[in-house]
Amino acid sequence: MIIVLKHGYTDNQIENFVKSLKSNYKVTVNKIITPNSVVLNLTGNTEELNPDKISKYEIVESITQEPNNFKKVSRNYKNSNTIIDLKSKHKVGNNNLTLIAGPCSVESLEQICSIANDVKNFGANCLRGGAFKPRTSPYNFQGLKKEGIELLIQAKNLTGLPIVSEITDIRYLDLFENVDIIQVGARNMQNFELLKELGKLDKPILLKRGMSNTIEELLMSAEYIISEGNSKIILCERGIRTFEPYTRNTLDISSIPILKRLSHLPVIVDPSHASGIPWLIEPLSMAAISCGADGIIVEVHNHPNSALSDGYQSITPYTFKHIANKLLKLKTFLNSNKP
Ligand code: PEP
Ligand code: MN
Q1: d(CA 233, CA 182)
Q2: DSSP bridge pairs for 33
Q3: 311 phi and psi angles, rounded to 5 deg
Q4: Which residue has its alpha carbon closest to ligand 1 atom 5?
Q5: For ligand 1, is residue 185 a contact (CB within 6 Å)?
Q6: Is residue 238 lining ligand 1, measured as CB closer than 6 Å?
Q7: Partner of 236 at 20 to 30 A CA spacing, among 10, 92, 171, 210?
Q8: How far is Cα 28 from Cα 30, in angstroms, rounded to an integer?
Q9: Model confidence over 150-192: pLDDT tens digits?
Q10: pLDDT level of residue 94 (50, 70, 90 thresholds)
Q11: Domain ranges in the chain?
Q12: Which atom of ligand 1 is nearest to the CA of 209?
């Protein structure tokens, strides 16, 4: 952190200020005297320094805080919002509403094409579908793998919707050549070797927050990708584990404005995994967009009761239609009322 001091303070007053910084926080203070001002360079445990508090000291002219652990994803590094162009011409970020919809798992050609057609007609601009499923139990459906990706590509060719699918291991990367957005799931958010490899691609990455990871850890994971050269990253809040058992996870709604403040990357929300409850998808999605999210990724199934994974939390295409309409109206209202 860099603190520039105001003119007209005595050496004594400056020394007292430096002493109070050292005693209140575990930081090292390096004083630089320039012809125009006195500048303090603070290093060490600067994370604990609250710029709002420090700026209340009369002596302080300005503060610049350099994030230590994530740099290129931060707003200090790049102030303008990152906008991600998809081949379909849809842009993720800025004033656009991104609606990614589809089943938890790709199950058959008939299933994925039927859902793809419906969600496209009802307002989705991307199709999701898991082919490699990281299931908690090894006895649960693990996804159709290569065949699942091939079926998803057929649904893309049919509808023109860009496709999103999760990668669980870098060994499968070749299979993702025609996948438009590669998803890194919550369980792999800190698979740093995977993140580094994805950083070498020129392809959008949808990075989900780990269920027990902090906002800063999510940003550091994004930094692994961007530091290898790939800045096409979409952050995704998908709920975190708390003591509350009513919902599958707890949607951390405050993470949205915080991520937007700290980073220039687009942020979307997954209300399906955050709640695990279909009737919560609408209010959580509305809350997410109101808080500044750039879109949602939601699980939609044509026969939720017979889905091979996460059917209990999936909404039907018709419910998606209703929610998409409400979200579009909300986004238009928010865009027209921007300060
Ligand atoms: C998914 O999107 O299907 C998924 C497994 O999500 P998460 O990684 O957020 O649990
Ligand atoms: Mn799922």
Answers
A1: 10
A2: 38
A3: -60, -35
A4: 185
A5: yes
A6: yes
A7: 171
A8: 7
A9: 999 999 999 999 999 999 999 999 999 999 999 999 999 999 9
A10: confident
A11: 2-64, 84-336
A12: 9
